[in-house]
Amino acid sequence: xxxxxxxxxxxxxxxxxxxxxxxxxxxxxxxxxxxxxxxxxxxxxxxxxxxxxxxxxxxxxxxxxxxxxxxxxxxxxxxxxxxxxxxxxxxxxxxxxxxxxxxxxxxxxx
Length: 110
Description:
Elements: H1 4-18, H2 23-29, H3 34-42, H4 49-58, H5 80-89, H6 94-108
C-alpha cells in the first residue's frame, strides 16, 4: 500500500491532469514552486496543511477529496438519469452488474 504522501501526490496529479493543467499552471495557482509541486506529486516531500489547502483551492476541491484512496472512478455529477441508473443497479448481483457493464461497453463503442 502506498504511503499517504504518495497517495496524496497521485490524487493531486490526477486532478491536475483532469483539469488540463500543467505542473507550472497548478504551482502558480497555488503559489508554489514547480520543483516543490513535482516532489509533492511524487510523494518525495511532505506538504504542510497550508500547502494542501492551497492545492485544494487551486484544484477547486474539498481537502478531503485529495485524500481519497482511489480516483479510479471519478465522481459523477448526480443527475436524475445517474440516480435512476444507480437505483436499477442497487439490488443486482455482481455477476449481473458485470454483464450490464459489458453491454454498456459494447453499445458505447458504436
